[in-house]
Specification:
The protein is an alpha/beta fold. Helices cover 27% and strands 30% of the residues. It is built from 7 helices and 16 strands. The protein has an 8-stranded mixed sheet, with helices on both faces. Strands 6-5-7-13 form a 4-stranded mixed sheet, covered by helices on one side. It is globular, with a radius of gyration of 17 Å. It starts with a strand and ends with a helix.
Length: 229
């Protein structure tokens, strides 16, 4: 099975690749992993991973600079129904729109996302109930896992003492707002509740970085690689 990591000039590609290879090797999975900027390879892939580091608008621009890449993603994910994993900004791009890095972002022009899931990517509010939070949100936070069939599948095995807290590593200043509750797989608390993972059908998005989340991240990647559609 061919798994492709999309290279559009914005992503922690080596870390993501190494984490996926570690999960494949540890569990003797049949996935062949490659990094590509070729839309044809993405359109024909069996699994697609879209990482992302930076501002929403910049990542969208980098993706659109690859002629045919958005069409290739739609072909693989929406038409052929292949498993998709978006990480950090790669998850955020699944939303309807975002205002990070856009001209006149506050109350002004916004950047369109893929529109695969409901919601808008907006800035984290540093002022929460009289407490000033550090933004960007950087560090380890506990996941609160939902009870949908997809959530149970993606976060399976995170029980018992070793994984009791479900702590994962976040690094972001923007988050998904206005999401459909049916598409929220997990949340976390940073001031208020923030979306930690979303998904529907064959696609999953993680706001946190599984490649930096040690044993818990490896378990989540293994579960996604074994996803049952």
């Amino acid at each position: 099975m061919n798994l492709v990591i999309v290279d559009y000039g914005s992503g922690n590609l080596c870390s993501v690749e190494n984490a996926l290879r570690a999960a494949v090797d540890a569990h003797q999975l049949p996935h062949r992993i490659s990094i590509t900027e070729n839309p044809d390879a993405v359109a024909k892939a069996d699994y697609v991973v879209l990482p992302g580091v930076g501002a929403f608008a910049d990542c969208r621009a980098g993706l659109m600079a690859l002629d045919g890449m958005l069409d290739a993603l739609n072909e693989a994910v929406l038409v052929r129904g292949m498993p998709f994993l978006g990480i950090c900004v790669g998850m955020q791009l699944m939303a309807e729109k975002g205002d990070e890095g856009a001209p006149n972002a506050v109350g002004g022009e916004i950047t369109q996302g893929f529109g695969w899931i409901k919601g808008v990517v907006s800035a984290l509010d540093p002022n929460q109930q009289g407490v000033r939070l550090k933004v960007p949100h950087m560090g380890w936070n506990e996941l609160i896992v939902g009870d949908s069939p997809l959530a149970r599948q993606i976060f399976a095995g995170l029980e018992g003492e070793k994984y009791a807290t479900h702590r994962v590593y976040f690094l972001h200043g923007y988050h998904l707002t206005g999401a459909d509750s049916r598409e929220i797989l997990a949340t976390s608390v940073y001031g208020g509740h923030i979306v930690g993972a979303v998904g529907r059908d064959n696609f999953v998005g993680l706001q946190f970085h599984p490649e930096k989340s040690q044993a818990v991240g490896q378990m989540i990647l293994k579960n996604w690689l074994n996803i049952k559609l």
